[in-house]
Amino acid sequence: MTLSIDLSDEELEKILLGDRGKDLLMEKVFNQILQAEMTEHLGADRYERSEDRSGHRNGSYERQLTTRVGQLTLEVPRCKDGSFSTKLFERYQRSEKALVLSLMEMVVQGVSTRRVKKITTELCGREFSKSTVSRLSKKLDEQVKAWNERPLDGEYPFLVLDAMHVKVRRQGGVRSTAVLLAVGINEEGKREILGLYTTLSETEEAWKSFLKKLSERGLTGVEHVTSDRDRGLKKAIRQKVPGAIWTPCHAHLRRNVLDDTPEQWRVAMKDLMDEVLQASSQTEAFRIFEEILEGDRQKMVTAAGEDGQTEEVDAYRKLREEAASALAILKENLEAATAVLALPGKYRRRLRTTNMIERLIEEVRRREKVIRIFPNIDSAWRLIGAVLAERHEEWSTSRKYLDMAEFQKWKDRASKPEPEPDESIERQPAMAT
After folding, report:
1. Does pLDDT of 324 surpass 60?
2. For tag attachment on the chain, is the N or C end more exposed, with fewer CB atoms within 10 Å?
């Protein structure tokens, strides 16, 4: 496709002297690119008589495109059979295309409302058929699949795993479907969304299959894994990522402990968990928790007594008396929860939770609210994959998430073998008492 940008003297003056010079210039260029794409698609220019013509124009519609110079308003041309699709939006609109396709599938399957049909008709500019949906889906599926199956190069010292659940129409009803997610931090300290895996339910076998696929794509060098406390996931990590340090998400653990704590003592429980989970080392964490359980560590607070008068009470003693089950949950998970303390201090805050995946899930939920119920499992995989692929591209071009220099020193120290005892030194007998 050859293109010459045509600007009148009046348009050029407006661009050069106006406040939106760059924006207007880009809009003008992009709009002419769109028209040139349509000409190439139809095989003929406007009003041109040609034997090669394969269709006819049918007006245009406005579309917003966000670029580095600002938000542009573009006039996207349409053709009568709806077959024109500009390449200009491909980089920016993958997730939006997936959203529209999900809505279109709902219409085609007859499970949508009139409002959804109206939205999709306006977005697409015309009525559409099953063949249109199939054609568009195939192209987008290829893009998402290529991203989700790309080779994983280099090592990923840190791995974060979590899952989300969406509603999907299958087997004659609406059923919950699990989407497994993985984020890695590579040797350079940059985050990568490694992939997703849709499965009927979140089971140990499903997690094993997902981790196996990641391994086959090149996942290696994992030193630390953060996830929730799901037993099946924990077993899958032990089997598929052997030797890695595993830390259950502190945010999930805190919520579980607080849910089992009487409301009036939840502030004290938060303070207790802060003391234990943010200790300088795992040994220190065990010591602090043991002191709290044995009553050797106090936390005096002002509270209302039985007679209604305020008094100073030991909050940790109250927790032992009234929140024993909550403390039992913390005790059961203490060893795993404090495993992250083996890492250098600067890495602990970001690796003690699955928050980075939680934020990704929130982005997906914003699109999911429009759908509510996915028409099929492929539609869910496509939309979530498109959203994740776009965010992955943003992460790959952004600054480092972690400085890995200190981690590398820690790893080098940990890999050195313990010195052998000097057998030439004669051992002295123990002194008698």
Report:
1. yes
2. C
Please check whether residue 228 is in contact with residue 248, taking contact to mean a CB–CB distance below 8 angstroms: yes
Please give the pLDDT value at position 432.
38
In angstroms, the CA 211 to CA 208 distance is 5
Separation of alpha carbons 271 and 276, rounded Å: 9
Global pTM reads 0.71
Q: Is 380 exposed, middle or buried (0-12, 13-18, 19+ CB in 10 A)?
A: buried
The secondary structure of 127-174, three-state, reads CCCHHHHHHHHHHHHHHHHHHHCCCCCCCCCEEEEEEEEEEEEECCEE
Distances (CA, A) of 209 to 197, 198, 202, 204, 308: 9, 11, 11, 9, 59
* Domains of the chain, CATH where assigned: 1-88 (no CATH), 151-247+355-414 (3.30.420.10), 250-352 (no CATH)
Q: What are phi and psi of 366, to 5 degrees?
A: -65, -40
User: For 296-315, what is each residue's pLDDT tens digit?
Assistant: 888 888 877 666 677 788 98
> E strand or H helix at 74, and its extent?
strand 70-79
| Phi and psi at residue 403, to the nearest 5° | -85, 120
Average pLDDT over residues 353-358: 95
Order of strands, edge to edge, in the sheet holding 191-199?
191-199, 173-185, 158-170, 224-227, 245-248
- In angstroms, the CA 381 to CA 98 distance is 10
Residue 101 Cα to chain centre, angstroms: 21
Instruction: Label residue 177 by pLDDT band (50, 70, 90).
Output: very high
The residues that bridge with 161 in the sheet, in sequence order, are: 182
CB 176 within 8 A of CB 160: no
Determine the pLDDT at residue 171.
Answer: 82
Q: Could you report the per-residue pLDDT of 278-298, keeping only the tens digit for each?
A: 999 999 999 999 999 999 888
Indicate the pairing of strand 70-79 with strand 57-67.
antiparallel
Q: What is the mean pLDDT of residues 344-348?
A: 94
The secondary element (H helix, E strand) that includes residue 217 is helix 204-217
Residue 12 predicted with pLDDT over 70: no
Residue with tokens 């050195």: 416
Dist CA 76 CA 391 (whole Å): 25
Q: How many CB atoms lie within 10 A of CB 245?
A: 18
What percent of the chain lies above the pLDDT cut of 90?
A: 48
DSSP 3-state assignment of 5?
coil
